[in-house]
Amino acid sequence: MENKSKTWNLWHGCHKISAGCLHCYVYRGDAKRNVDSSIVAKTKSFDLPIQKKRNGEYKIPSGTFVYVCFTSDFFVKDADPWRAEAWEMIRLRNDLKFLMITKRIDRLQTSLPNDWGDGYEHVTICCTIENQELTDYRLPIYEAAPIKHKVLICEPLLERIDLRSYNIGSWIEQVVVGGESGNEARPCYYDWVMEIRDVCVENKVSFWFKQTGAKLVKDGRLYRINRQFQHSQARKAEINIKF
Predict the structure, then answer these.
(1) Helix spans in 3-131 (H)
(2) In terms of C-beta density within 10 A (0-12 exposed, 13-18 middle, 19 or more buried), how is residue 163 classed?
């Protein structure tokens, strides 16, 4: 992981489109503040990558790892009028490394800048899957997509997923797995996690068990894990691998 990182939430708000969205953490947080999460709007941080200090230097220093749109989806349709300007900032700041996660990989081709070609070297676009149905829908689109760096996000993992038919070793750099957080979380089974890990080992793809989720089932026992321990408990499993 990069030493320097920054989150760039250039717009906020989204729409639930699949099973993984049911207990969305953004919706949970917004509900506590009486904010309507379905309203997509620009934020005050929209132009963050090109904001400068008084001395003329960029506020985000060169080499920083920038997490993009973590309270929305970069490819949400509502943001179509603003995306060209966002891409221009990303293109300009090619000294940064941008990472975005999307459930809308099927909107990628209609949302790319004209000079994208086979992808920007400094941009990683991650695709999320949470069950087999969405795996079989999204992964063929993702595999064919012109993206330099691809990371597969299996989070929240809601059921057993079979990745063996997708030859991930030839096009995926890393697979990230995690359970669902929140009081209403659906259980994540450790066997599902380990099966995905096995496929990663077979294909020499890096694997990261990011977090357990609030309910983890292992060896037939349900473990209820508080939010503050979900990442540390995943690390304690010592199953992460890097190629």
Answers:
(1) 25-32, 80-92
(2) buried
Look up residue 209 and give its two tokens: 């068990």
- Measured CA to CA, the distance from residue 122 to residue 211 in angstroms comes to 26
**Half-sphere exposure of 233 toward its Cβ, with a 13 Å CA cutoff?**
18
Examine the pLDDT at 2 and tell me if it is beyond 50.
no
pLDDT band for position 3 (cuts 50, 70, 90): low
| pTM higher than the cut 0.90 | yes
Q: How far apart are the two ends of the chain, measured CA to CA in Å?
A: 14
State which amino acid sits at residue 74.
Answer: F
Taking only the tens place, the pLDDT of each residue in 50-83 is 999 999 999 999 999 999 999 999 999 999 999 9
CA distance 184 to 207: 27
CA distances from 221 to 189, 215, 216 (A): 10, 10, 8
Any bridge partners for residue 125, and if so which?
100, 150
**Which of 186, 47, 182, 20 has the alpha carbon at shortest distance from 101?**
20
Banded pLDDT at 144 (limits 50, 70, 90): very high
- Determine contact, residues 91/121, Cβ cutoff 8 Å: no
Give the Cα separation of 13 and 38 in Å (integer): 5
Region of 119 please: left (phi>0), alpha (psi -120 to 50) or beta: left
Q: Which spans in the chain are helix H?
A: 25-32, 80-92, 132-144, 190-203, 230-236
Spell out where the chain has E strands.
Answer: 5-8, 11-12, 41-42, 65-68, 97-102, 123-129, 149-154, 174-178, 188-189, 206-211, 215-218, 221-224
